Amino acid sequence: MGELTSPSGPAHPVARHGMGDPGATGRFGEYGGRYVPESLVPACAEVEAAFRDAWADPDFRGRLKTLLTVYAGRPTPLTPAWRLSEELGVTLLLKREDLAHTGSHKINNVIGQALLARRMGRRRLLAETGAGQHGVATATAGALLGLETTVFMGARDIERQALNVLRMEVLGAEVVPVASGSRTLKDACNEAMRHWVSSAADSYYCIGSVMGPHPYPWMVREFQRVIGEEARGQCAAGLPSGVPDHVVACVGGGSNAAGTFAGFVDTTARLVGVEAEGGAAATFGRAGVLHGFRSMVLQDDDGQVAEAHSIAAGLDYPGIGPEHAHLRDIARAEYAVVDDEEVVEALHRLARTEGILPALESAHALAWVLRAVRTGEIKPGSTVMVTLSGRGDKDLPTLKEAR
Ligand SMILES: *Cc1c(COP(=O)(O)O)cnc(C)c1O
Description:
Keywords: Amino-acid biosynthesis, Aromatic amino acid biosynthesis, Lyase, Pyridoxal phosphate, Tryptophan biosynthesis. By secondary structure, the chain is α/β, with parallel strands linked by helices.
C-alpha cells in the first residue's frame, strides 16, 4: 500500500468512555487511525472536514431524517417477541432493522454518506462489496440521489452472487470485476481504494461498516446511531425499568452493533456483540492493520490476514471496527462467538415462534441469547433487546442447502 501514515497522540477523552467524537486522530484507545498511502490522506481529511461540517448543520440532519422517514421507513418498530419470551422466561424485544427499506440497517449508512457525497459536489459513489449487500445498498442510495455508482466486486464473488449483481445493475450501478488475488472482498477493497486515489475529485468512497481509515469508523457509527437512539426511546416508553438488562447485536464489521450500543453505552445495560465462529476477530484476532485502520484482526502464525468463513456472508470479514476492539479492552462491551449450527437453529426458532425470518447474520445475536438463557448467563425475568439487523429472504437458498 506504499507509505503508511497515522497520526499519533492520546485518544480523545470522550472516545475513551462514551462512544463520542474520536478527535482529529480518529483513535479509539490504541485502535483506529488512518493507515493509508500518503496520496489518500487529503481525501480522508476532506471527508472528515465535510462530515464534521454536515453533522453540525441542522439542515443536513433534517434532510437525512426526512429521507430515513419517508424513504427508508424509519422509525423501525421495537417488537416484543411474545411467544419466544414466554418459552424462554425472559422479556425479549426485537429492534426491527429487517423492516427498513432493502431489508437491513445498511440503508441508514448509505443514505447518510450519499447525502454527504452530494454536499461535497461529488457525482459518483465508489464501493466494494463481498456478498453484494453493501453494493446493493449503495446502488440504491445512488439511484435515490442521482449519483453514478461503481461497485468493485471480486470475480469469484460475482459468480457466487449472481442475483445481487443483477440487482445492482437493475438499480443502475456498474459492477466492476476484480480478478486479482483470491478474487474476493479483500481484493475488491484494495481495488476500490486504488481507484479512489485517482478519482477523489469527482468520486466519493462509500464504506459499508465501521471500518476503514478515520473518519469512516466514527462517521458510520454516527449514521447508525439512529438504531440505538430509537430503541432507547422505545424501551423507555415500553419497559418498567426503562433500559433492558442485555443489549445484543451481531458483529461483522460492527456497524449495526455500534449504532445499537451508542444508544445504551451510558446506561447500565450489558452490551454484547456476537461474532461468527469463522470471523471472530474480537475473540481470536490480534492487533494489526487492515484496510486503513488498526484493530483486532484474524491472522495466521506469520501475521498474514486470515480468510474469514461464515454461513452468513455479512459476517465473513477478518477484522472488527476499531471502536469495538476498544470497547472490549475497557470491558464496556463483551464479544461472544456462536457456530453455524446454533445460528440456523435460532433462525428457525424465531421464524416458527414469531413469524419473523431473520437474516443469518442477525440470527447470530439470537443464537447467543438462546444459549445464555440455557446456561443461566441470562437470568429468568431479565429483559433482553436484540437488534435484528436484517431479513432472511436472501438466505433461503443457503437454508435449503443446509437441510
Ligand atoms: C452487512 C450485514 C451485517 C454485518 O455488518 P455490520 O457492519 O457488522 O452490522 C449484519 N447483518 C446484516 C443483515 C447485514 O446485511
